[in-house]
Write a structure and sequence with these properties.
Layout (H helix, E strand, L loop, with lengths): L4 E4 L2 H13 L6 H21 L13 E7 L4 E6 L6 H7 L8 H6 L5 H11 L6 H4 E9 L8 E6 L4 E7 L5 E8 L9 H11 L6 E5 L9 E2 L5 E3 L9 E3 L16 H12 L5 E9 L5 E8 L15 E5 L2 E7 L11 E6 L8 H5 L2 H24 L1 H15 L2 H4 L4 H7 L3 E2 L11 H7 L6 E6 L3 H5 L5 H6 L3 E4 L4 H7 L2 E2 L2 E5 L13 H13 L1 H10 L29 H9 L3
Parallel strand pairs: 2-8, 14-16, 18-19, 18-21
Antiparallel strand pairs: 1-6, 2-3, 3-7, 4-5, 4-7, 5-6, 8-11, 9-10, 12-13, 13-16, 14-15, 17-19, 20-21
Helix pairs in contact: 1-5, 2-7, 10-11, 10-13
The structure holds adenosine-5'-diphosphate and magnesium ion (MG).
Length: about 575
């Protein structure tokens, strides 16, 4: 064995460890789920790499995860023969958090553990969850293809540091040895471990094995007449046997998969912590054949707006894992969707480059996009409350849709939710179909106002005439809204019209009598208008008598074809 080196954890790892122990005290057993999940990932990765180089199997392509407990020494060992880690990989992966935006996330924590521990769910805990039950963790690993004396041992008490040293290890893959805390000895029990695996990891597609109990030989027993009263029992040594189904969950029949299995599988593929909001599992047959299992998370991840954030689906080809985060199968405005695809049409040696410009990719992407939009529409129709919780988490992202996806514009528009003068509430829960249904006789447009804040939108003087006439106006105040309405100009054949724009024509809703009165008023104010024009010379394009105000004396409007004042501000803020 080589010399021991000591390394410090990245600051955020230390914070994560602290928080985790605080927040997961009531759900400690999930450490096993996380470690088995990692072991299964390691098997997937080896199988993928071996497609190019079968030597990596070293003659043993029978991938499995083994779990054992040692009650005497208070240890639990999770052992896999997957891809393994090199010295550099172990230092990088088990000393830092390799998620972009991590530092940012931690800098926003309040320091109040109770509050912050709510946030940990968004983050996922992974390997470090071992320290929930262990006061020392030892990881012994040999990368597939490396020599037996090129293995590495990592060890830490989860405080501020870890050590690494070169070791000998004949078997390929990774052993994780948990030295249980005094109060967590209960986990050094095989039956306990077995029940946890069944609860959380039954869906894992690689075999998860535990030792069956040893059976001692018992001789046959006969009574005086020579009848057998007890048959002989053959001795059976303890054997490794799979305790899970070990078939890929998505290949099973929907009817045979329970909600719990779908939930746990979600946690495995998404590295998320909470149950998903919704999922859809489909086998598509025909010209392109694939299986998709698509999940909508219940909470937005902390880094949803991070541009470098990896997103996308897990890709399998004929049940062989190919890659994580294949972003080609989902448009950007659906980047919150998690799950997997298993294609029968893509080649096993498919790369990101090949996916980029590929007919099969396009067909699957089209299918999956429609699938997600449908599933959201169904949810919206069926369960308003659940849909609202989806909208509150992901609505902002969905609003990017009409600009990005022309083909599905109308479909996406139906999924949008807004605040409106109908309720004057900041809760965005009015859909465009609802608005259209409430339109007044003779109203042919969908009216909206965009402002910097909800309060500003709600109190806009431009709304006065609409309120007076009882015409509903959508109140838009999200950063993305101006962008949205510049791309969503129509819905259900009705134009979307800003109330701050140019000649406001309320069409048939203005009766002849009002029109006449308005003209008279304009003539009376001719003189005032000229004087105001002179005073504002060079500052405004025009001054007109307005009929849209009832209480305020004046307001600023944008000319029909000019940039709106919000857009002008947006452009100025990016230096245009
Ligand atoms: P995640 O699984 O979300 O990537 P984890 O904290 O669970 O995060 O694991 C961190 C990383 O450590 C993994 O991405 C992987 O690279 C590495 N790792 C963990 N466990 C194993 C293992 N059993 N075999 C190989 N690599 C592993
Ligand atoms: Mg993990």
């Amino acid at each position: 064995t080589g010399q021991k080196q000591t390394h410090g954890f990245q600051t955020e790892v230390k914070q994560l460890l602290q928080l985790m122990i605080h927040s997961l005290y009531s759900n400690k057993e999930i450490f096993l789920r996380e470690l088995v999940s990692n072991a299964a990932d390691a098997s997937d990765k080896l199988r993928f790499k071996a497609l190019q180089n079968a030597d990596l199997f070293e003659g043993d392509a029978n991938l499995r995860v083994r779990i054992s407990a040692d009650a005497e020494n208070n240890t639990v060992t999770i052992s896999d023969n997957g891809i393994g880690m090199t010295h550099d990989e172990i230092v990088a992966h088990l000393g830092t958090i390799a998620k972009s935006g991590t530092a940012d996330f931690f800098s926003k924590l309040s320091g109040d553990q109770a509050k912050d521990s709510q946030l940990i769910g968004q983050f996922g805990v992974g390997f470090y969850s071992a320290f929930i039950v262990a006061d020392k963790v030892t990881v012994r690993s040999r990368a597939a293809g490396a020599a037996s004396n090129e293995a590495v041992e990592w060890s830490s008490e989860g405080e501020g540091e870890f050590t690494v040293q070169a070791i000998e290890k004949s078997g390929r893959g990774t052993d994780i040895i948990l030295h249980l805390k005094e109060d967590e000895k209960e986990y050094a029990d095989e039956w306990r471990l077995r029940s946890i695996v069944t609860k959380y990891s039954d869906h894992i597609s690689v075999a998860v094995e535990m030792l069956s109990p040893e059976v001692e030989a018992v001789a046959e027993e006969k009574d005086d007449e020579g009848n057998v009263v007890r048959p002989a029992i053959e001795a059976k040594p303890a054997q490794w046997e799979a305790i899970n189904k070990a078939t890929a969950l998505w290949t099973r029949e929907k009817a045979d998969i329970s909600d719990e299995e779908y939930n746990e599988f979600y946690k495995h593929v998404s590295h998320d912590f909470a149950d998903p909001l919704l999922w859809e599992h489909n086998k598509v047959e025909g010209k392109t054949e694939y299986t998709s299992l698509l999940y909508i998370p219940s909470k937005a991840p902390f880094d949803m707006y991070n541009r470098e954030k990896q997103h996308g689906l897990k890709l399998y080809v004929q049940r062989v894992f190919i890659m994580d985060d294949a972003e080609q199968f989902m448009p950007t405005y659906l980047r919150f969707v998690k799950g997997l695809l298993d294609s029968n049409d893509l080649p096993l040696n498919v790369s990101r480059e090949i996916l980029q410009d590929n007919k099969v990719t396009q067909a699957i992407r089209k299918g999956c996009t429609k699938r997600v939009l449908k599933m959201l529409e169904k949810l919206g129709n069926k369960d308003a409350e659940k849909y609202q919780s989806f909208w509150d988490e992901f609505g902002q992202v969905l609003k990017e849709g009409p600009a990005e996806d022309m083909a599905n514009k109308e479909q996406i528009a139906k999924l949008l939710r807004f605040s409106s003068t109908e309720t004057d509430s900041a809760v965005q829960n009015v859909s465009l179909p609802q608005y259209v249904e409430r339109m007044k006789d003779g109203q042919d447009k969908i009216y909206y106002v965009v402002a910097d804040s909800f309060e500003a939108a709600k109190n806009s003087p431009h709304l006065e005439v609409f309120r007076k006439k009882g015409i509903e106006v959508l109140l838009l105040a999200d950063r993305i809204d101006e962008w949205l309405v510049s791309h969503l100009t129509e819905f259900d054949g009705k134009q979307l019209q800003s109330v701050t724009r140019g000649g406001l024509d309320l069409g048939e809703m203005d009766d002849a009598e009002t029109k006449e009165a308005q003209e008279k008023l304009e003539q009376e104010f001719d003189d005032v208008i000229s004087r105001v024009k002179a005073a504002l010379e060079g500052k405004v394009k025009d001054v007109k008598v307005s009929h849209r105000l009832t209480d305020s004396p004046a307001c600023i409007v944008t000319d029909e074809h000019d940039m709106s004042s919000q857009m002008a501000k947006l452009m100025a803020s990016v230096g245009q």
